[in-house]
DNA sequence: AATGAATGAGGCTTCATTCAT
DNA sequence: TATGAATGAAGCCTCATTCAT
């Protein structure tokens, strides 16, 4: 089964950790509140209340409030994001597309949906990435290993078929990623909606031109 | 004279407002601290101390802590960003470039420098934009009026000369902007350095291809 | 004017510090509570309540609870104890006693009264001295400089007159001090009363024998 | 076999009580932690951890934290101190000394060693004695029965032989005890070392003079 | 206009104690 | 009997905000 949002993926990942039901409730509640109000504006009593436990319980396993964040970010980097990335790249590499254009369109659409579905959760990550260099680096590696790597085979294939310009793969992926963000971010920030069909076609059109072989 | 960073521009803009020296000191100190630690982690006593005034003074003009932020964001939207944008578009529209390629390269380079110089301050904006929809909308209009508008003439010119694809101007600018961000953001987050010369040439190469007329 | 208890001396000493009335109230309340219940069993809200101020005020000047203790111990070592010691030695050195025996009896009696009057406050010091080596050392120097020093002249005088054994002064004072404590401490701990007249005579009798020249 | 420190004596005493291994572990751990950090600064989870049991187990036998203290103080008063006292007085009364001077020197030296070896544990007692009047009284009786009583025979003997002044025994013992403390306490508090040989000779010299028959 | 002492609500955290397993 | 998750009261401390001077 393939997921297209992060909160669900996260809740599932918690089952692999040694946590009681209440502890999981704390993490789920924290993820929700941190997403909505940000880390600093979420109080530990907010968390306890939403999780339906006492404040003491919040601290039983996650020694500090920061510890809760770490307990969220950890699985995120070690499990949620990898799983999401793997699901994505698996799907991509196991499907055959008639042309680079259709391949491109497919992944752009897929990632737009994913990003929009996961926007609130991605905000936590964004905040952490802004604040915490170690986490930023972690994500950078994640990106390298889980996206650039697996997509490599497919992209190389299109390069050999002369459907894709002969640039380094990370450069190509950079352009794809930022172009997708260029559509998703403004919509997310302005709380507007995106016509994904239209946006993905536009983005594909631009990228196809820009990434055409010389 | 043209500025290439925001803190300086901000300090100058304050001179145009009816503020005592102490009030200006408060705003400058606040901008600095908010940039470094974020709004929530900056205390009003931190601000008073850095500004060299009493806490009472901080509250004399800016009724609340939120009020300080507003007093910063206000000038930002009404003066600093417009001035930055105008300086940019003026320079662009008053200079003649041999070709669209050279024009593109020039503005990409210029904006990369600007963004990298102003990164800490842009973080406040980024954080506010994430949290506060009204501010996000304000920025959106700013962008529309100050960038898309003034640049319009020049871009249209290149479209008429068949050096630039015949797409709506905001779409074109979106791609330019996101591509620049694609180079600047990772460097900023990973605290790495950017080879601006190289990055701007790469970005230009990609955009030229992607924005070539059909 | 000569004081024979510590709480009064302490309250007077506070006037020499730059503290508001409320801050002084905090310190006086703290001294009282720490004396009665001990540091660990006194809560900051207890202190605030007894001092008649808000808890915030408690922390305005004394950054931490430990800071309150320091703010008490500091004046104690720097002002209260020196003043007490000086008042004592002054009185002793400016009075002439017919014999060493009467001199001894006078100071023993005086110190018994002082110790019994100041017992609750001395408990804080005792606790600190047990826990904190630096403070223990501070007291040791205090003792050396303020007691052994000033008393030196007088004792030497009695040594020359062959009324006092020819031992080092600190050894002699050690015996006097511990003998006094031997009467005061049990009474203080058992909350019993002391017949000072009787106790001081007994102690004098013993010390006179023990300190008689060979 | 004769002991010269309290922690060992305590551990042995526990064997005479009907306690499971875990209960004993709890008491030993508590004694150690209370000695090191004091009662108030020792948490029950600290104790559980050091004892290698769960927090639940700690509460199974000792209903409250205070109960642990009682369970320590009890054996202390009922067994440890009596045993220590008895071992001491037995040794003293079963050995014959050529003179009161040698007798005095022997017991002074012995008690100095004992006090220095047991200093950390004595601190708990000291703290409790300061705080808790009942315990203080208990100790007072202990002292009376276990020291003054047994030593009585020996001291009377020396009084009859005119080697010892004809004062009440508790008065004599008071002076011996406080003089010993006068050497031991400063060293313990300043974490200095004591030259026991020298100190005991000095103390003996003084006491011999002070306790000489008229 | 400027000061800074004072406030009190609320945040994070600890810890003695209980109870279902 | 032993466990350890769970509790909730209470502790220490911060901070935006007010107000008398």
Automatic annotation (TrEMBL), chains A, B, C, D:
GO terms for biological process: regulation of DNA-templated transcription. Keywords: DNA-binding. InterPro entries: Homeodomain-like_sf, HTH-type_TetR-like_transc_reg, HTH_TetR. Residues 43-62 bind DNA. Residues 20-80 form the HTH tetR-type domain. GO terms for molecular function: DNA binding. This is Transcriptional regulator, TetR family. It comes from Lentilactobacillus hilgardii (strain ATCC 8290 / DSM 20176 / CCUG 30140 / JCM 1155 / KCTC 3500 / NBRC 15886 / NCIMB 8040 / NRRL B-1843 / 9).
């Amino acid at each position: 089964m393939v997921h297209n949002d992060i909160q669900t993926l996260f809740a599932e990942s918690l089952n692999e950790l040694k946590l009681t039901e209440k502890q999981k409730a704390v993490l789920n509640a924290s993820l929700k509140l941190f997403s909505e109000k940000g880390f600093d504006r979420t109080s530990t009593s907010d968390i306890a209340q939403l999780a339906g436990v006492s404040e003491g319980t919040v601290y039983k396993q996650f020694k500090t409030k920061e510890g809760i964040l770490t307990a969220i970010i950890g699985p995120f980097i070690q499990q949620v994001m990898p799983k999401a990335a793997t699901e994505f790249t698996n799907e991509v590499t196991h499907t055959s597309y008639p042309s680079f254009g259709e391949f491109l369109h497919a992944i752009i659409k897929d990632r737009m949906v994913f990003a929009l579905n996961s926007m609130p959760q991605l905000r936590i990550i964004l905040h952490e990435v802004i604040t915490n260099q170690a986490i930023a680096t972690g994500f950078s590696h994640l990106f390298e290993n889980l996206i650039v790597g697996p997509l490599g085979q497919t992209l190389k294939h299109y390069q050999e078929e002369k459907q894709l310009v002969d640039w380094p793969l990370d450069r190509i992926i950079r352009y794809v990623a930022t172009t997708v963000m260029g559509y998703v971010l403004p919509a997310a920030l302005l709380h507007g909606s995106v016509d994904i069909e239209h946006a993905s076609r536009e983005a594909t059109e631009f990228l196809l031109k820009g990434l055409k072989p010389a």
